[in-house]
Amino acid sequence: MKSYLQKIQLIAAFGMALLGIVAYYPMIWMTPVAAVPITFAPPPPPPDRGAAGDRGGAASRGCSVGNQSVIALVPVYKQTINQGETEAVSVTKVWGLTTEKHPTFWFFVPYKKSTIHSIEFVLKDESTKLSQTLYLTKPEEPGIISIRLNATTPPLEVNKRYHWFFKMKIICNPQQPLERENVEGWVQRVNLNPKLVDNLKQATPQQRVRLYAENGIWYDALTTLAELRLAKPKDPTLAVEWMNLLKSIDLENLAKQTLINRTAKLPIIKEAEPNRPPLSKPVTN
Protein backbone atom coordinates (compact mmCIF):
# COMPACT_ATOMS: atom_id res chain seq x y z
CA MET A 1 0.00 0.00 0.00
CA LYS A 2 2.81 2.34 0.92
CA SER A 3 4.57 1.57 -2.38
CA TYR A 4 1.33 2.24 -4.26
CA LEU A 5 0.92 5.67 -2.61
CA GLN A 6 4.52 6.55 -3.42
CA LYS A 7 3.87 5.71 -7.09
CA ILE A 8 0.75 7.92 -7.10
CA GLN A 9 2.70 10.82 -5.54
CA LEU A 10 5.53 10.37 -8.04
CA ILE A 11 3.13 10.39 -11.00
CA ALA A 12 1.35 13.48 -9.65
CA ALA A 13 4.65 15.30 -9.14
CA PHE A 14 5.77 14.41 -12.66
CA GLY A 15 2.46 15.64 -14.09
CA MET A 16 2.71 18.96 -12.28
CA ALA A 17 6.28 19.42 -13.49
CA LEU A 18 5.19 18.65 -17.06
CA LEU A 19 2.34 21.16 -16.83
CA GLY A 20 4.78 23.74 -15.54
CA ILE A 21 7.06 23.22 -18.53
CA VAL A 22 4.16 23.44 -20.99
CA ALA A 23 2.95 26.65 -19.35
CA TYR A 24 6.45 28.12 -19.30
CA TYR A 25 7.15 27.91 -23.03
CA PRO A 26 4.13 29.96 -24.20
CA MET A 27 5.31 32.66 -21.80
CA ILE A 28 8.66 32.65 -23.59
CA TRP A 29 6.97 32.80 -26.97
CA MET A 30 4.76 35.68 -25.85
CA THR A 31 7.62 37.75 -24.42
CA PRO A 32 8.30 40.62 -26.83
CA VAL A 33 11.77 40.69 -28.31
CA ALA A 34 13.48 44.07 -28.19
CA ALA A 35 13.58 45.52 -31.68
CA VAL A 36 16.91 46.58 -33.11
CA PRO A 37 16.94 50.42 -33.05
CA ILE A 38 16.76 52.21 -36.39
CA THR A 39 20.13 53.71 -37.18
CA PHE A 40 20.97 56.01 -40.04
CA ALA A 41 24.08 54.86 -41.92
CA PRO A 42 25.52 58.10 -43.34
CA PRO A 43 27.01 57.79 -46.81
CA PRO A 44 30.35 59.50 -47.53
CA PRO A 45 29.72 63.24 -48.05
CA PRO A 46 31.03 65.07 -51.10
CA PRO A 47 34.85 65.23 -50.97
CA ASP A 48 35.05 68.96 -51.73
CA ARG A 49 33.77 71.98 -49.78
CA GLY A 50 30.63 72.23 -51.93
CA ALA A 51 28.18 70.95 -49.30
CA ALA A 52 29.11 73.31 -46.48
CA GLY A 53 26.14 74.64 -44.54
CA ASP A 54 24.53 75.30 -41.16
CA ARG A 55 21.62 73.25 -39.81
CA GLY A 56 21.12 75.65 -36.88
CA GLY A 57 20.66 75.03 -33.20
CA ALA A 58 23.83 76.78 -32.05
CA ALA A 59 22.20 80.08 -31.07
CA SER A 60 18.87 81.14 -29.59
CA ARG A 61 16.54 84.12 -29.60
CA GLY A 62 14.93 85.58 -26.53
CA CYS A 63 11.50 85.53 -28.20
CA SER A 64 11.47 81.83 -29.10
CA VAL A 65 9.73 79.12 -27.08
CA GLY A 66 12.25 77.53 -24.72
CA ASN A 67 14.97 79.91 -25.89
CA GLN A 68 15.65 77.65 -28.90
CA SER A 69 16.59 78.36 -32.52
CA VAL A 70 15.54 77.03 -35.93
CA ILE A 71 16.97 73.60 -36.74
CA ALA A 72 16.96 71.65 -40.02
CA LEU A 73 16.35 67.92 -39.51
CA VAL A 74 19.27 66.75 -41.61
CA PRO A 75 22.66 65.09 -40.97
CA VAL A 76 25.85 67.08 -40.48
CA TYR A 77 29.43 66.06 -41.23
CA LYS A 78 32.46 67.57 -39.54
CA GLN A 79 35.48 67.35 -41.82
CA THR A 80 38.98 68.73 -42.08
CA ILE A 81 39.97 69.45 -45.67
CA ASN A 82 43.57 70.08 -46.65
CA GLN A 83 44.32 73.11 -48.77
CA GLY A 84 47.79 72.94 -50.17
CA GLU A 85 50.58 71.23 -48.25
CA THR A 86 50.21 72.92 -44.88
CA GLU A 87 46.79 74.56 -44.51
CA ALA A 88 43.84 72.56 -43.13
CA VAL A 89 40.30 73.95 -43.08
CA SER A 90 37.50 72.69 -40.81
CA VAL A 91 34.21 72.35 -42.72
CA THR A 92 30.69 71.52 -41.53
CA LYS A 93 28.71 69.84 -44.29
CA VAL A 94 24.91 69.71 -44.15
CA TRP A 95 23.90 67.16 -46.75
CA GLY A 96 21.52 64.29 -47.39
CA LEU A 97 20.27 61.96 -50.12
CA THR A 98 16.80 61.39 -51.57
CA THR A 99 15.26 59.26 -54.29
CA GLU A 100 12.35 61.65 -54.79
CA LYS A 101 11.91 64.08 -57.67
CA HIS A 102 10.14 66.45 -55.29
CA PRO A 103 11.41 65.66 -51.77
CA THR A 104 10.10 66.92 -48.46
CA PHE A 105 12.23 68.98 -46.07
CA TRP A 106 11.68 69.19 -42.30
CA PHE A 107 12.47 72.06 -39.93
CA PHE A 108 11.95 72.74 -36.25
CA VAL A 109 10.45 76.22 -35.77
CA PRO A 110 10.39 77.32 -32.09
CA TYR A 111 8.39 80.51 -32.64
CA LYS A 112 4.78 81.41 -32.04
CA LYS A 113 2.79 82.59 -35.04
CA SER A 114 2.55 86.11 -33.63
CA THR A 115 6.35 86.54 -33.59
CA ILE A 116 6.93 85.32 -37.17
CA HIS A 117 7.02 88.00 -39.84
CA SER A 118 7.76 85.76 -42.85
CA ILE A 119 9.26 82.41 -43.90
CA GLU A 120 10.83 81.48 -47.19
CA PHE A 121 12.50 78.39 -48.60
CA VAL A 122 15.01 78.77 -51.43
CA LEU A 123 16.31 75.97 -53.65
CA LYS A 124 19.27 76.66 -55.91
CA ASP A 125 20.83 74.53 -58.62
CA GLU A 126 24.61 74.71 -58.09
CA SER A 127 25.21 74.87 -61.84
CA THR A 128 23.12 78.00 -62.48
CA LYS A 129 22.41 81.38 -60.89
CA LEU A 130 18.66 80.79 -61.00
CA SER A 131 16.95 79.90 -57.74
CA GLN A 132 13.44 78.85 -56.74
CA THR A 133 11.72 80.44 -53.76
CA LEU A 134 8.72 79.27 -51.76
CA TYR A 135 6.94 81.83 -49.57
CA LEU A 136 5.32 79.90 -46.75
CA THR A 137 2.35 80.44 -44.49
CA LYS A 138 3.22 80.73 -40.82
CA PRO A 139 2.66 77.62 -38.64
CA GLU A 140 -0.06 77.94 -36.02
CA GLU A 141 2.20 76.72 -33.23
CA PRO A 142 5.86 75.96 -32.54
CA GLY A 143 6.94 72.54 -33.80
CA ILE A 144 8.36 70.58 -36.70
CA ILE A 145 7.06 71.66 -40.10
CA SER A 146 7.47 70.12 -43.55
CA ILE A 147 8.06 71.68 -46.94
CA ARG A 148 7.31 69.59 -50.02
CA LEU A 149 8.42 70.84 -53.39
CA ASN A 150 5.50 71.46 -55.69
CA ALA A 151 4.96 68.65 -58.21
CA THR A 152 4.52 71.21 -61.00
CA THR A 153 8.08 72.48 -60.56
CA PRO A 154 11.12 71.01 -62.32
CA PRO A 155 12.12 67.72 -60.65
CA LEU A 156 15.50 67.25 -59.03
CA GLU A 157 17.95 65.70 -61.45
CA VAL A 158 19.77 62.51 -60.49
CA ASN A 159 23.28 62.96 -59.03
CA LYS A 160 23.05 66.76 -59.05
CA ARG A 161 23.42 68.68 -55.79
CA TYR A 162 20.95 71.39 -54.83
CA HIS A 163 21.56 74.09 -52.25
CA TRP A 164 18.59 74.93 -50.02
CA PHE A 165 18.05 77.87 -47.65
CA PHE A 166 15.39 78.20 -44.94
CA LYS A 167 14.99 81.85 -43.96
CA MET A 168 12.85 83.45 -41.27
CA LYS A 169 12.25 87.03 -40.15
CA ILE A 170 11.26 87.29 -36.50
CA ILE A 171 9.52 90.08 -34.58
CA CYS A 172 11.32 89.88 -31.25
CA ASN A 173 10.68 93.53 -30.42
CA PRO A 174 8.19 95.62 -32.42
CA GLN A 175 10.34 98.67 -31.69
CA GLN A 176 13.46 97.05 -33.15
CA PRO A 177 14.42 95.83 -36.65
CA LEU A 178 13.38 92.30 -37.59
CA GLU A 179 15.63 89.48 -36.43
CA ARG A 180 16.79 86.88 -38.98
CA GLU A 181 17.14 83.11 -38.61
CA ASN A 182 18.74 81.21 -41.49
CA VAL A 183 19.79 77.60 -41.96
CA GLU A 184 21.14 76.00 -45.11
CA GLY A 185 22.25 72.68 -46.55
CA TRP A 186 22.30 70.43 -49.58
CA VAL A 187 20.20 67.65 -51.08
CA GLN A 188 21.14 65.19 -53.79
CA ARG A 189 18.86 62.82 -55.65
CA VAL A 190 20.17 59.31 -56.38
CA ASN A 191 18.97 56.12 -58.04
CA LEU A 192 18.78 52.93 -55.99
CA ASN A 193 20.22 49.57 -56.97
CA PRO A 194 17.65 47.06 -58.32
CA LYS A 195 17.84 44.78 -55.28
CA LEU A 196 17.00 47.60 -52.89
CA VAL A 197 14.16 48.73 -55.16
CA ASP A 198 12.65 45.22 -55.01
CA ASN A 199 13.03 45.09 -51.23
CA LEU A 200 11.28 48.45 -50.85
CA LYS A 201 8.37 47.29 -53.03
CA GLN A 202 7.79 44.27 -50.79
CA ALA A 203 8.29 46.11 -47.49
CA THR A 204 5.74 47.67 -45.16
CA PRO A 205 6.06 51.43 -44.53
CA GLN A 206 7.91 50.79 -41.25
CA GLN A 207 10.27 48.38 -42.98
CA ARG A 208 10.89 50.99 -45.68
CA VAL A 209 12.01 53.48 -43.03
CA ARG A 210 14.69 51.03 -41.90
CA LEU A 211 15.75 50.20 -45.46
CA TYR A 212 16.13 53.86 -46.37
CA ALA A 213 18.03 54.63 -43.15
CA GLU A 214 20.38 51.66 -43.42
CA ASN A 215 21.20 52.64 -47.00
CA GLY A 216 21.86 56.29 -46.22
CA ILE A 217 18.74 57.78 -47.87
CA TRP A 218 18.00 60.35 -45.18
CA TYR A 219 15.17 62.45 -46.59
CA ASP A 220 13.08 59.42 -47.57
CA ALA A 221 13.59 57.68 -44.22
CA LEU A 222 12.63 60.80 -42.26
CA THR A 223 9.59 61.64 -44.38
CA THR A 224 8.23 58.08 -44.38
CA LEU A 225 8.51 57.84 -40.59
CA ALA A 226 7.13 61.34 -40.00
CA GLU A 227 4.07 60.53 -42.11
CA LEU A 228 3.54 57.32 -40.13
CA ARG A 229 3.71 59.29 -36.88
CA LEU A 230 1.25 61.88 -38.15
CA ALA A 231 -1.18 59.06 -39.04
CA LYS A 232 -0.69 57.32 -35.67
CA PRO A 233 0.51 59.94 -33.18
CA LYS A 234 -0.09 57.71 -30.12
CA ASP A 235 1.71 54.63 -31.44
CA PRO A 236 4.51 53.93 -28.89
CA THR A 237 6.58 51.87 -31.35
CA LEU A 238 6.65 54.71 -33.87
CA ALA A 239 7.59 57.14 -31.10
CA VAL A 240 10.60 54.99 -30.19
CA GLU A 241 11.66 54.66 -33.83
CA TRP A 242 11.35 58.44 -34.26
CA MET A 243 13.59 58.97 -31.25
CA ASN A 244 16.16 56.46 -32.54
CA LEU A 245 16.24 57.95 -36.03
CA LEU A 246 16.77 61.49 -34.74
CA LYS A 247 19.32 60.23 -32.20
CA SER A 248 21.39 58.78 -35.04
CA ILE A 249 22.05 62.36 -36.24
CA ASP A 250 22.31 63.85 -32.72
CA LEU A 251 18.88 65.50 -32.74
CA GLU A 252 17.14 63.35 -30.12
CA ASN A 253 16.27 66.56 -28.23
CA LEU A 254 13.67 67.23 -30.94
CA ALA A 255 11.96 63.83 -30.67
CA LYS A 256 9.12 65.10 -28.45
CA GLN A 257 8.48 68.29 -30.39
CA THR A 258 5.08 68.58 -32.06
CA LEU A 259 4.85 67.32 -35.63
CA ILE A 260 2.64 69.84 -37.42
CA ASN A 261 0.27 68.11 -39.82
CA ARG A 262 0.51 70.60 -42.64
CA THR A 263 2.82 70.59 -45.63
CA ALA A 264 3.65 73.80 -47.47
CA LYS A 265 2.76 73.40 -51.14
CA LEU A 266 2.80 76.94 -52.48
CA PRO A 267 3.80 78.02 -56.00
CA ILE A 268 7.49 78.49 -56.63
CA ILE A 269 8.74 81.86 -57.83
CA LYS A 270 11.98 82.08 -59.80
CA GLU A 271 14.49 84.82 -59.18
CA ALA A 272 17.34 85.89 -61.42
CA GLU A 273 19.70 86.14 -58.45
CA PRO A 274 19.34 84.60 -54.96
CA ASN A 275 19.92 87.96 -53.23
CA ARG A 276 17.55 90.03 -55.30
CA PRO A 277 14.34 91.34 -53.67
CA PRO A 278 11.40 88.93 -54.10
CA LEU A 279 9.20 89.30 -57.14
CA SER A 280 6.08 89.17 -55.00
CA LYS A 281 5.23 89.76 -51.38
CA PRO A 282 5.54 86.86 -48.94
CA VAL A 283 2.40 85.22 -47.62
CA THR A 284 2.25 86.18 -43.95
CA ASN A 285 -1.03 84.80 -42.68
In short:
This protein is of the alpha+beta class and 285 residues long.
List keywords for this structure.
globular, 11 strands, 5 helices, 28% strand, seven-stranded mixed sheet, disordered C terminus, alpha+beta, single chain, 285 residues, four-stranded mixed sheet
Structural description of this entry:
- The protein is α+β, with helices and mostly antiparallel strands.
- It has one domain.
- It has five helices and eleven strands.
- The protein has helices spanning about 1-30, 195-200, 205-215, 220-230, 235-245, and strands spanning about 70, 75-85, 85-100, 105-110, 115-125, 130-135, 145-150, 160-170, 180-190, 260-265, 270.
- The strands form two sheets. Strands 2-3-9-8-5-6-11 form a seven-stranded mixed sheet, with helices on one face.
- A hairpin with a 3-residue loop joins strand 2 and strand 3 (about 85-100).
- Helix 3 (about 205-215) packs antiparallel against helix 4 and helix 4 packs antiparallel against helix 5.
- The protein is globular and about 60 Å long.
- It starts with a helix and ends in a 14-residue tail after the last strand.
- The model is unreliable at about 15-35 and about 270-285 (pLDDT under 50).
